Amino acid sequence: MPDINIHSLNLYINTNYSFKQYNRSWFNRVIQSMGLRTMKTRLMVGGGAGFAGDRMDAAIAVAQDLATQEGPRYLIFETLAERTLALSQDPAARAEREQMMLRRLSTVLTICLDAGIPIIGNFGSWNPQETAGKIEALSAQLGCRKPRVAVVTGDDLMQEHGSEGLLALTSDRTLKDGEHLIAANAYTGAFPIAQALDQGADIVVTGRVADPALVLGPMISTFGLQETDWSGLACGTLAGHLIECGSHICGGYFADPGFKDVPGLAWVGFPIVEITDTFECLIRKAANTGGCVNERTVVEQLLYEIHDPEAYLTPDVVLDISKVTINDLGDDRVLVSNAKGKPRPDLLKATLCFDSGWIGEAEISYAGPNAAARARLAIEVIRTRAAVLYKDLPLRCDLIGVISAFASQGGVQWEQPAALAPTVADATTQDVRVRIATLAPQRSRVEDLLGELEALYTTGPAGGGGVRSRIHKQITTTSAGIPRHFVSSQVQLFNHESGGY
Q1: What is the CA radius of gyration of the chain?
Q2: Which helix (H) or strand (E) holds 366?
Q3: For the purposes of burial, counting CB atoms within 10 Å of the CB of 303, is it exposed (0-12), middle (13-18) or buried (19 or more)?
Q4: What DSSP line would sit under 190-214, residue for residue?
Q5: Which residues, 6 or more positions from 47, have their beta carbon under 8 angstroms from its beta carbon?
Q6: From edge to edge, which strands make up the β-sheet containing 203-206?
Q7: CA distance 273 to 369
């Protein structure tokens, strides 16, 4: 059988035909159905962000690196955590996140559009259609060509099913006083992303999708994978899992001086994964960046959020990493292979977010000789008064510098006699910060209890200062399994002329 380099043919056809005439996945499927053997093809996917608060300049080096390469290349932005969708229900928070997204895109948009690097991001958390319009406006502002922006929707379960129907699916969740459901989103899969890319999208805006889907989507589009190509889907899911946290696999959140040293952490690089049609993943970092990629950084990220190595559930495939092999090639390059796949689960994960009232915290410092003793006395005063005046409110107390990170939720440690006794740290610490926290359905109740800490200026131990307090809405989340037929994804291309779809 003849050897055919699919990518070369793709480039030729892309150059000479419009996407209305040509569909890359369709072409790949035709080649495969003809039984033709293909030369090894690879695609490259760079990770530009691991969460909404990631560095704004992180993606620049990744985009510049990809722009110097040949073949199919993509840049992804993973910017959604479980609570982000719920927080985006607040107009002020939504506006802030929108500006962050535009600033992030503005650093790489020109590079990617000029080099033909499609961008895929789950930054449509509040309104994907509105996001598409903002991106078009940004491209005009930067003097770029108009991008073809596609929107993937269908994850928002509230629009389709309402809160009552959704709560019936979460039998282990009972609403508390004043609590109500404000958002519910399903984790959708990668095929709608691939569909958008097949239609010629330069930028794909999604809502809540499974994190690895951001990489698997380009792989499906490039290699023409089918819904039952379990090995290929497993490889793409593994690749997405490895780079979804941005610099984690390049030494970010890894360093432990003397045990796990990372060179150039201040300029740590972000990852690029090269995936072949033989389903191997080469992990590296963007050129001219700090950090490191080695066996240990890969293993740490490989195990991230994995509960069962033989069954990592995603919308597209059940990933089995129990036989995965990791080969450190040196020079910050690691080859990962042997991911296995099993048929996808019948249920999709969904995150339900609740407005659970108000949470507040307040702090005051004590410094100098006997600082810990004075701080302990401050907590004793607050706890004594709260036991009488605020019986209905939970109260957490911390002595930052003595007891805080290891404290249990709700300040239960203060109920233990051993916790009240001075420790070795008490004698040596001359800089302690008292922190209290509480929550309630009514903001005024939170304000009143936090006021007890500020009142220590005149009623508490000597030498307290630097009071700060903060109150904000408390968002709680729970997960549920949603039948797959509850969710229906849609792909729409933004219309340049009408500003709609």
Answers
A1: 26
A2: strand 347-367
A3: exposed
A4: SHHHHHHHHTT-SEEEESSB-TTHH
A5: 62, 76, 78, 243, 244, 246, 270, 271, 272, 273
A6: 325-328, 333-337, 281-285, 271-276, 42-47, 73-77, 119-121, 203-206, 149-153, 490-493
A7: 54
Burial of residue 458 (number of CB atoms within 10 Å: 0-12, 13-18, 19+): exposed
Which residues pair with residue 333 across a beta bridge?
A: 284
**Residue 125: left if φ>0, alpha if ψ -120 to 50, beta else—which one?**
alpha
How many helices, marked H, and strands, marked E, lie in the chain?
17, 20
| Residues 222 and 72: beta-carbon distance below 8 Å | yes
Taking the C-alpha atoms of residue 359 and residue 395, their distance in angstroms, rounded to an integer, is: 11
Q: 471: which strand partners?
A: 360
How far is residue 336's CA from residue 303's CA, in Å, rounded to a whole number? 13
Q: What is the pTM of this model?
A: 0.88
- Closest by CA position to 254, among listed 214, 312, 212, 294: 294
Kindly provide the residue ranges of all beta strands, DSSP E only, lying in 368-489, ordered along the sequence: 396-400, 431-440, 465-483
Judging by DSSP bridges, how do beta strands 119-121 and 3-4 pair with one another?
unpaired
Q: 76 has which bridge partners?
A: 47, 120
User: What are 431's strand-pairing partners?
Assistant: 367
**Contact assessment for residue 290 and residue 266, using Cβ atoms and an 8 Å cutoff:** yes
Total residues found in the chain within this entry: 501
Q: Which residues are within 8 A (CB) of 131 and not within 5 positions of it... i.e. 6 or more apart?
A: 98, 101, 123, 124, 151, 205
Cross-strand partners of 435: 363, 398
Distance CA 107, CA 63 (A): 9
418, two tokens: 């051993």
| Tens-level pLDDT at each residue, the chain (501 residues) | 344 444 445 444 444 444 433 455 555 555 555 555 455 679 999 999 999 899 999 999 999 999 999 999 999 999 988 767 777 777 788 888 888 999 999 999 999 999 999 999 998 766 788 889 999 999 999 999 999 999 999 999 988 788 887 887 766 667 777 788 988 999 999 999 999 999 999 999 999 999 999 999 999 999 999 999 999 999 999 999 999 999 999 999 999 999 999 999 999 999 999 999 999 999 999 999 999 999 999 999 999 999 999 999 999 999 999 999 999 999 999 999 999 999 999 999 999 888 999 999 999 999 999 999 999 999 999 999 999 999 999 999 999 988 777 766 555 666 666 666 777 778 788 999 999 999 999 999 999 999 999 999 999 999 999 999 999 988 888 888 999 998 999 999 986 555 555
CA neighbor of 201 nearest in space, from 137, 129, 147:
147
- Cα 65 to chain center, whole Å? 23
